[in-house]
Amino acid sequence: MTIHLIERAKKFQERTAILTPKGSFSYSDLFQQSEQVAKNLLHSSSDLKEKRVAFLLPSDFSYVKVQWGIWRAGGIAVPLCTSHPAPELEYIVQNSGASVIVTNNDFIDIIKPIAKRTRTQIILESAFCTQIDSPELPLLSSKRRAMILYTSGTTGRPKGVISTHKNIQSQIETLVKAWKWKQDDHILQILPLHHVHGIINILNCALWSGATCEMLLNFNSKVVWQHFVQSNLTLFMAVPTIYSKLISTWEESPPEQQQFWSKACSKIRLMVSGSAALPIQTLKKWKRISGHFLLERYGMTEIGMALSNPLEGKRVPGYVGLPLPGVKVRLVNENGHVVEPGIPGEIQVKGPNVFSEYWQRPKETKKSFQQGWFKTGDVAILENGIYKILGRNSVDIIKSGGYKVSALEIEGILQTHRDIKECAVIGIPDAEWGESVAVALVLKTKTVFQWDTFRKWAKSQLAPYKVPVHHIQMKILPRNAMGKVNKAKLANNFQGAVK
Ligand code: MLC
Ligand code: AMP
């Protein structure tokens, strides 16, 4: 079998697939150049046979052609995040067992020592320009594992979520159908490309549809507003924090600018919010500014998207709608029984969209399923026939800016600092970020402690979005009778905390 997503590119030919500040690339360009990437990766073998290929590239055409090239060569794509410090990148390279890292000259200094320590080969993306005629590309089963995305969980370091080509295809197809993607669509991509929101919902849904994906290197509020004006966008998708930042920029601008920007939103047919709860205030403000009633949907790395408000029909603020086509959803209580409407329960999901396994973690994979249903850890309620997300069943998972972070992982790293005796990390509510990462620190005696210096050190170890922004110092951490930190109680100590 061939990869359906990629085969479809043949019919879109000279249509623009990728638009970047550096230039525009057609579907033919993407098809041919990803073939060259695949042939260079294969070298003299006939199939990468699920070899892991990590790649650290900017959000532009190079990223897309390498992702497709890895898939076409039969490899597993492991996207790395451009904002991660070396230890985070090294963990993923090591954990995935990648044999190759594809990168460019901008990232070579950070990658070189990692490649040396992990004995991984580096290939510069520019090397893929070499024209190679053979070998033939392998035929792949849809069950072939295609991608590993790293996600934080309730147990220490991030887990690799494996999706097969079939999973990816069904995650795409359900959204294309539900939101009526078509060739004439044009979307702006400003999200990080190591998570499903950017990779599936934006980039590959566009490519499946023959639409145009306009890629910017990162999010900048003013630049996005300018693109609403100057690009022919029909779709925009982002996390609530981005809408919140766009609102702030609009509010800080002079009235003529505001009018101009607001008017530009009218040509967009759909604006979507997801990856974290959309505050009703943000939804209302955005409606006033842009005229768009945001379509909120719910998803997760392991399942792609599961629930969505309708494209046409009533969208209810604070609710995430109904299961997407082909996705089964149920709510289950602590005893594992399906609950009646009106009773909260854990969201469980089944369908071809659901991932195949956590990379090399069979026990955790098994534990995360109940009779074939994936246990999301999110709690919801079915009210008036639609779903509402109520929260999560673990205090150790924090969502900040749409990024999922693990309190335990952060604690594990912070505790390695010489000044820290012990610490506890929690998420505290934040109007713009959803939640902010906060830490209670117990210092070793006689320590002269500087928060800024400590934060700088933390940034050298952890992704920027995992570094705590609030802190308090305590003599001891509040613990329960079992000796576990009482995080609910701890949250009270953060009222008026220092940023
Ligand atoms: C973080 N920061 C804060 C803060 N929280 N500052 C003040 N108050 C807070 N509460 C600061 C940090 O200190 C740090 O600053 C910086 O933000 C690091 O976070 P960042 O996220 O890298 O920030 P930024 O570059 O400003 O980008 C904001 C953003 C970004 C919203 C554009 O967070 C983003 O792209 N989020 C999307 C994530 C995403 O795609 N998730 C989808 C996952 S898939 P400094 O300057 O000190 O470094 C999924 C499934 C689904 O969830 O359903 O889609
Ligand atoms: P991730 O593991 O990074 O893919 O994040 C998935 C998590 O994001 C889910 O388990 C939810 O907790 C959260 N999430 C995604 N969409 C929504 C939404 N619309 N409302 C509330 N939480 C959401």
Features:
single chain; 499 residues; alpha/beta; GMP Synthetase, Chain A, domain 3; 9-stranded mixed sheet; 5-stranded antiparallel sheet; 16 helices; 32% helix; binds malonyl-coenzyme A; binds adenosine monophosphate
Describe this structure in words.
The structure is a single chain. By secondary structure, the chain is an alpha/beta fold. It has a domain of 98 residues: ANL, C-terminal domain (GMP Synthetase, Chain A, domain 3), CATH 3.30.300. 32% of the residues lie in helices and 27% in strands. It has 16 helices and 26 strands. Helix 8 links the parallel strand 9 and strand 10. It starts with a helix and ends in a 7-residue tail after the last helix. The structure holds malonyl-coenzyme A and adenosine monophosphate. The site of malonyl-coenzyme A (MLC) has 27 residues, from helix 8, helix 10 and strand 13. Adenosine monophosphate binds next to strand 13, strand 20 and strand 21.
Layout of helices and strands, plus pairs?
Blueprint: H1 4-7, H2 9-12, E1 16-20, E2 23-26, H3 27-42, E3 52-56, H4 61-72, E4 76-79, H5 86-96, E5 100-103, H6 108-118, E6 121-124, E7 145-151, E8 159-164, H7 165-178, E9 186-189, H8 196-209, E10 212-215, H9 221-230, E11 235-238, H10 240-251, H11 255-264, E12 270-273, H12 280-290, E13 295-300, E14 304-308, E15 322-323, E16 328-332, E17 345-350, E18 357-358, H13 362-367, E19 369-370, E20 373-383, E21 386-392, E22 397-400, E23 403-406, H14 407-414, E24 420-430, E25 434-443, H15 451-461, E26 470-473, H16 487-492
Malonyl-coenzyme A is lined by residues 83, 191-192, 195-198, 219, 239, 241-242, 274-275, 299-301, 400-403, 430, 433, 436, 464-465, 467, 469.
